[in-house]
Amino acid sequence: MTRQPPVSDPVDLVFPGTEDIDASAVFSGPGYKAPEIKTESTAVTSLVLSLLFFIPALPLLGVVFGVVGLQRCANRRRNGQGLAIAGIVIGSVVTAIQLMVLYLYFSFMGAV
């Protein structure tokens, strides 16, 4: 008698990048509906912190969150690359402007 290899249950098969997708939400209803790709929260945080330019040091945190968000978007196959890049660019420009204003303030305060 020959032994048959065990047949794996199709429910146990998981394709890369689909670990957190609810199968009942995808396959319910008529037709197939593509799973929604989530937006990376660190990319959104990066843009928000970069836009809060009137609070010192927050745009610099926006740059840090933007770099982390960009890496996570690539690794987790999520949306938000554009938000992360915008957070990095805006945060860098605003941080440079804040540093120039700080330098000018202290240079004029020392001259007076």
Automatic annotation (TrEMBL):
Matching entries from InterPro entries are given as: DUF4190
The organism sits in which domain of life?
Answer: Bacteria
Annotated membrane-spanning segments are 47-70, 82-106
Keywords from the named record: Membrane, Transmembrane, Transmembrane helix
Q: Which residues are in the DUF4190 domain?
A: 43-97
Q: What is this protein called?
A: DUF4190 domain-containing protein
**Source organism of the structure:** Bowdeniella nasicola
